[in-house]
């Protein structure tokens, strides 16, 4: 029996679940989209650090990006990862993700923010 590495299995699950359309109308598709979003945000939360450094560098310069941008990226990394864990734990309730944009790779030029309300899909 051939064993697969956890990274390969995680990537396969990520690709399988993120293929759902977030605006799908059926309940199972919305649950699948939220499950995929949770897995993706847990797996890619660390990308918030370089993303935030790049955004901060563009707006405030390299010195600020190397210090405050790095620290803000750490905060967003924890925020995105925890929001992903929350989405994974509550995927049965098809709500919009708290973190905005939904995935770290969407709208890579703007800083991550968080929704203040719980919205159904």
Low-confidence runs (pLDDT<50, min 5 residues)?
none
Instruction: Count the domains.
Output: 1
Q: Count every helix, treating DSSP H or I runs of 4 or more residues as helices.
A: 4
Helix content: 55-70%
State the strand order across the main sheet.
Answer: 1-2
Strands, total number: 2
What is the H/E string?
A: HHHHEE
Evaluate the radius of gyration.
16 Å
What characteristic shape results from the CA principal axes?
Answer: globular
Q: How would you sum up this structure, described in words?
A:
There is one protein chain. α1 (6-17) crosses α2 (27-44), α2 (27-44) runs antiparallel to α4 and α3 packs antiparallel against α4 (62-89). The protein is mostly helical and 121 residues long. It is 59% helix and 3% strand. A two-stranded antiparallel sheet has the order 1-2.
Summed up, what is this model?
With 121 residues, the protein is mainly alpha-helical. Helix content is 59%, strand content 3%.
Fill in the keyword field for this structure.
single chain; 121 residues; mainly alpha; two-stranded antiparallel sheet; 3% strand
What's the topology here?
Blueprint: H1 6-17, H2 27-44, H3 48-60, H4 62-89, E1 99-100, E2 113-114
Antiparallel strand pairs: 1-2
């Amino acid at each position: 029996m051939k064993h697969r590495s956890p990274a390969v299995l995680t990537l396969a699950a990520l690709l399988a679940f993120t293929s759902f359309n977030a605006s799908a109308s059926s309940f199972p598709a919305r649950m699948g989209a939220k499950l995929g979003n949770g897995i993706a945000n847990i797996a890619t939360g660390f990308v918030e650090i370089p993303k935030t450094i790049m955004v901060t560098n563009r707006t405030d310069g390299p010195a600020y990006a190397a210090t405050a941008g790095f620290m803000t990226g750490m905060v967003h990394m924890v925020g995105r990862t925890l929001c992903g864990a929350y989405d994974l734990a509550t995927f049965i309730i098809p709500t919009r993700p708290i973190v905005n944009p939904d995935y770290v790779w969407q709208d890579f030029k703007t800083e991550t923010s968080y929704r203040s309300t719980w919205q159904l899909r």
